[in-house]
Backbone:
């Protein structure tokens, strides 16, 4: 697998399109941090880290609106790819959907949202946009 973050986002996207309640993803430290950010931002219902085998598994319970069965996640877009990395400075941090969405960044202080990076005045690699 050349791009594990794109695989992570695609698994979540496919589970939403299939209206699945839970999705299982192979674990890594970066994926665990991204999952915590999605939970803290209110895009997923719950998560659980299972250390069964060498790599481990992340179980993510997806969040849906009970009335019209729409997912809390409208879109997931990979920004920085292995072939073309996208870095941004603290002064040029992206705003997703005019502040309604989040951008997940990998910074020197760890993985965080664009809003947290703006408060700390640091830049980094833009991993993905979540709306």
Residues:
């Amino acid at each position: 697998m050349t791009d594990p973050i794109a695989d992570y986002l695609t698994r979540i996207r496919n589970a939403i399109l299939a209206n699945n309640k839970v999705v299982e993803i192979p674990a890594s430290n970066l994926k665990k941090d991204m999952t915590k950010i999605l939970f803290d931002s209110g895009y997923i219902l719950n998560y659980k880290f299972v250390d069964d085998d060498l790599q481990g598994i992340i179980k993510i319970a997806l969040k849906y609106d009970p009335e019209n069965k729409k997912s809390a996640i409208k879109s997931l877009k990979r920004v920085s790819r292995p072939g073309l990395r996208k870095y941004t400075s603290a002064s040029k941090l992206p705003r997703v959907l005019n502040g309604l969405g989040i951008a997940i960044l990998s910074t020197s202080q760890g993985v965080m949202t664009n809003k947290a990076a703006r408060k700390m005045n640091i830049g980094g690699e833009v991993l993905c946009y979540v709306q």
